[in-house]
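Task: complex structure prediction.
Instruction: return structure tokens for all chains below.
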Amino acid sequence: MIEVSGLTKIYGSHAAVDHINFTVNDGEIVGFLGPNGAGKTTTMNMMTGFISSTEGSVKINGFDILDEPEQAKKQLGYLPDVPPLYGDMRVTEYLDFVCDIKGVPKAKRPEMLKYIMETVKITDHSHRIVKNLSKGYRQRVGLAQAMVGFPKVLILDEPTVGLDPKQIIEMRDVIRALGKRHTVILSSHILGEVSAVCDRIIIINKGKIVADAPAERLTEGTGHTNQLVRVDCTREKAEETIKNIPLIKEYSINEKDGELEISLSGEEDIRAAVSKAFAKADIPVLMLKPAALTLEEIFLKIISGESPEITVGAENKTTAEKTEEQAEKATEEETEK
Amino acid sequence: MISIYKKELWSYFTTFTGYAFLGFFVLITGYFFAAQNLASYSANYNDVLVSTMIMFLILVPVLTMRSFAEESRQKTDQLLLTSPVSINAVVIGKFLAAVTLYLIGILITAIFPLILSKYGNVDTSATVCCFIGYFLMGSCLISVGIYISVLTDNQIVAAAGTFCVLFLLLMMDNIASSAPITRKASLVFAAVIAVAIAGTVYTGTKSLAASGIFALLGAAVIGLCYIIKPELFDGLIINSLGWLSVLSRFENFYLGVFGISDVVYYMTFSGVFLFLTANSIEKRRWS
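Output:
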């Protein structure tokens, strides 16, 4: 269990993290979502005791990270944004050193390391020198390092950044598996990333918590109100049909391989209305799928107060970068395959 | 602490650092041994030890430049600081590993006086005493190097910085000997020190009141001393620098005089720099 209360970090006159409060219960997988520079890494660095907080407290299983650092740190495994690896060591030597500093008894090590290396799939590379590993494998060794000693709480800072789509999916599976044994907090700036693995999502922006809700709550609704439709007909006919659906507020039509790809959005669930309308007009619907939801859209949604059940902080929206959206789309396509 | 110590020692011997250090150490010592003992028919090994001190300028930076600079460059300090080991344990572990390597060098070169004792009259107790001093002094310089390494994440900067500071430390006697001995100069010197202390207090506490108190206190002490015992200010610069000098403390050991106060001085010196090291890691966390 992690209790964060009033956590604040001030650099000069700029508050990187501003009075953050939340509690994570045992066995939860919580996603920490926010654009770059929102304060995710700073928060995680404070939670793990790498830097100290200006104000507020962090308790890991009841141990305060500043008052009883050694007890608290025993409960923690941390994968920072850059995996903390010694380039000159072999993977096994490195993990053995981590066992050493985390005080894992010698007798337990072989079994534990075997299990960890199998979980993150580095058994085949265990004798390689760390600096020769590819980025994906380094990230896995970093994760293995966090798992050493089977701490109750795992804190992972952008665990999938820089990985290729296949590795991202593998990493997600690993994290999901870890959730059965550990309490996991992971951060990301990609919504698809966290919604795929997390039970709960905390959105942070400019150092403040903007939303804290179960994952479905944030992604539901919008998924039903924004749809991507592929139909086989002429543009005029499609436009006419769409105009006859009263629920549709906005639409755009693209031509692709002789078919029309239409993105539709309305205020409530539009799926039934859309399929009925096209059926009535005798237009074959080739595809109907929820349009990808971006972090940007979620921000807009929260800020405009469309989801009153979600805790809303008064904050301005921040635009997620276009590259991030593309990355997200890429991973989603990969998932579909 | 033991885990850090083991890892550091391991990394000295898996990278080129440890071998370079030992090789150079033995080579230079061997050269002076050949020149000052064998070629000049002298059985005084202490002279060799004094002559080899110049190599500390190069060897200590080689030994310590990586220690913390490399950790923060590779971001492995995040691992160390989020593990259940204390900062002091990390600092002491690293220091002891460097000192161990230095000790290995000393033990290898201890063959030279053994060879000498076969053929000539070596004053055993004086040599042992000098070796102890040599070890303690080297440890001090290593602690300085470790402290400088923590201030930067660039090994080269750490090495160059260590070189400069060690150069000043070893030259301190020469610099001090040319310092003015008048009371006026001594007063200025004392005032500068008082201001420096007040400044340090200010950067540490960010409180004008606290540093003001220290400045006033310093002024009061200087004033009182000047009224009560003005002869204290004759040659104050030379005396205090000489008292602080790492090299002048070594003279007793060189002469075969084993003084507890000198041992305490060297150990305190190392302790202060290790404390400063731990402190600046801690400070970085809070900034």
